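Box 3.1 A note on notation
Throughout this textbook, protein chains are presented in two layers. The first layer is the amino acid sequence; the second is a token string describing backbone geometry. Keep the layers aligned when reading.
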Amino acid sequence: MSAGEFWGAADESPPTRRRPASRADRSLDDRVPFLARLEQAERESLLVLGRTIRYPARSVVIRQEEPSAHVLLIVHGWLKVTVSAVNGYEALLALRGPGDIVGESAAVSGRPRSATVTSLESVEAVAVDQDQFTDYLHRTPHAALQLLSLTVDRLRSGDQRRLEFGALTVSERLSGLLLELARAHGITTDEGIVVAVPLSQQELAGSVGASREAVTRLLRVLRERGVIATNRRRLVILRPELLRRTDQIYD
């Protein structure tokens, strides 16, 4: 598979993703996927090392604590990255889509998987074995630096998330999440902004660090006030401007 086949044409942005930032600022944004950070020749030489794998919707792609160490380069579809606590609570850490890489931590460190990765819809990915991937990084210093840059960006994003958990209420965190979903994964229609990534109420709860019951109550308020519409994992944001004024919505 060539880089041109992956993007649809050489150097185009992956579908449903934000257009990559300029070379000057792309290293500061964890939303810019790994393959978008590479030069075309680097993408091509990496993709040809792997094999194409397809996963049906809602299947476990990588399981937390398992010893596997291959990496996955996402071609089509979306996955969620989660961790589970001893009491069974599942926290949603991130969403990964076209152009993203998952599983790189285990490949580089040799340690067991730190999280579970599950497909949210039908997913196509290129799997690259650990030895081939680490050899590629040794042979391609620029790609190795871009992977390091992505890791740093994700750590900074995690720090910001922890700050929000301590400083914001659950309603503020949920409103912020919905705005981020609209910005990063939204499709504008006559009805409103349709969130393209299918997330359940439990997954929304796991993303904001709250119980499903609390998120269900807040979503009900948002529906009643005409801010959102929901139906079987379909989320439409009707009035995004109101999500920025949580003090008025939930009063």
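Residues 1-28 have pLDDT under 50 and may be disordered. The chain is about 40% helix and 20% strand.
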